[in-house]
Amino acid sequence: MSSESKAYRTIEARPNAESLIKPGELVDLVEVTPLTLADRRIYNQLLENAWDAIDKPVTHIIPKSMLRGTHNSNDRVGESLERLMAAIVKIEVTRDGEPAIQRVQLLGGNVETLRSDGLLEYEIPARLRKIIHNSNVFARLQREVMFALTSKYSLTLYEMVQKRGNLRWKSSEKFSLEGLRGVLGVPKGKLSSWSNLKLRAIDPSVAEVNALSDYMVEVVPVKTGRSVTHVELRWWRKDGEASGKAERAMSFSSVGRRAKAEGRTDEMAAPKSTELKPRPAWLDKRGSALRTETYETARMRYPGYDIYHIEGEWRSWAEGKETPENADRAFLAFFRKFAEANPI
Fold it and tell me: For residue 232, what are the β-bridge partners?
């Protein structure tokens, strides 16, 4: 989602239990050094963790365990950090009233403790801090969707649509084919023809975003003469029924989500194989099955506690136990006992 008002600054937008904020300038950027899906997810988490002081010259600290995802090893985190430090991106900015291209690094210096349960200290580069400070357009990304998408192209397309979704007088945008390749992060020399780009990157990404997000998306080719030289990105918000289908799709494994996105499964049929069997949502650590109101209640009742840490403790404690009739009430009851045993 995005803000059209020049008076509203991106750094004034707040993340919440279900979503995080990404400055619009970091959505439509062109990667000089291509990044992986894991790199992009980790970077979004680093931005979120630093958000309260994202434009300040300070060091940020995050537990490495928050960046590992479902992997037990820290090796992938270290490799992603090195690629992010080496990554140079081109960002469109305005300088003295004129459009300009600014080349910046995505991540500054950092210190990683060697313990598997250790911390990462990192910095946001000065020029990037200035860009974020001046930003007034942003994308609001749903955590659950971010971790469900299975390719970097899908994640980038999702971010592009979330940045534009709330524009009141706009529902489409034209990109040159090379411009789209740059934003998607297609490596140089790869997917050079329109047919390959459409088959390998665009079609799968559109299918995933349509299946999992709050918007429907189209990428329509535009020809100059006989060749495709541009594309038109179109988006519109789903109606209630379509949004419900997207919520159901989130409960499937990545194999099941991919099959649904490609139209290979009956949307209303229960999954028949163990691969497609949905894990109980209340135990899913990647995304939350709790209502937003539950988090707000927890904040009001128990100010000062790290809600997400306690949610993780609750889910770990609940492994192997009987499914509660009401997960929200069960979480709040666990929170009460935790607060009583661990007063601040």
Answer: 174, 220
Residue 296 has pLDDT above 90, yes or no: no
What residues have CB less than 8 Å from 257, skipping those under 6 apart?
148, 150, 208, 211, 212, 249, 250
CB of 221 within 8 A of CB of 255?
no
Q: What is the pTM of this model?
A: 0.70
pLDDT tens figures, 80-108: 999 999 988 888 888 888 989 899 999 99
**What is the residue-wise DSSP string for 133-160?**
HH---EEEEEHHHHHH--SHHHHHHHHH
End-to-end CA distance of the chain: 36
| Cβ–Cβ < 8 Å for 160, 233 | yes
110, two tokens: 């950092």
Whole-number Cα distances in Å, 178 to 71, 228, 284:
35, 11, 39
Q: Which residue has the tokens 């992603």?
A: 80
